[in-house]
Amino acid sequence: MARKAKEIVVNPRLCKGCHICIAVCPHSVLKQTERVDNRGFFLPEVENLDACTVCHRCEMHCPDFAIKVIERK
User: Fold this and answer.
1) Which of 53, 29, 51, 40 is nearest to 10 (CA)?
2) Do residues 30 and 22 make contact, with C-beta atoms less than 8 angstroms apart?
3) How many domains does the chain have?
4) Residue 21 backbone phi and psi in degrees, to 5
5) Model confidence pLDDT, tens digit, residues 2-11
């Protein structure tokens, strides 16, 4: 059975909106938000959770450890 994500959590206190996670995702799961946070950053948000194959590339490449992929059991 294919691995699927239950949830992808972006910690807004740690994320600086570099969008590396968006760039490294092979399935276009994440996108840039339209709204600016209180620090002036456009944070990533989940656009297509069903497309996530739990490869953890977004987690591995995040320089601030701001993203976590939670796998379905």
Assistant:
1) 29
2) yes
3) 1
4) -60, -40
5) 889 999 999 9
| pTM of structure | 0.89
Residue 52 has a CB neighbour count (10 Å cut-off) of 24
Q: Which two tokens stand for residue 1?
A: 């059975």
Give the containing element (helix H, strand E) for 2: none
- The residue count of the chain comes to 73
Structural domain containing residue 13: 5-71
Cβ atoms of residues 9 and 68 within 8 Å: yes
Residue 58 DSSP symbol: H
Alpha carbons 10 and 61: distance in angstroms, whole number: 13
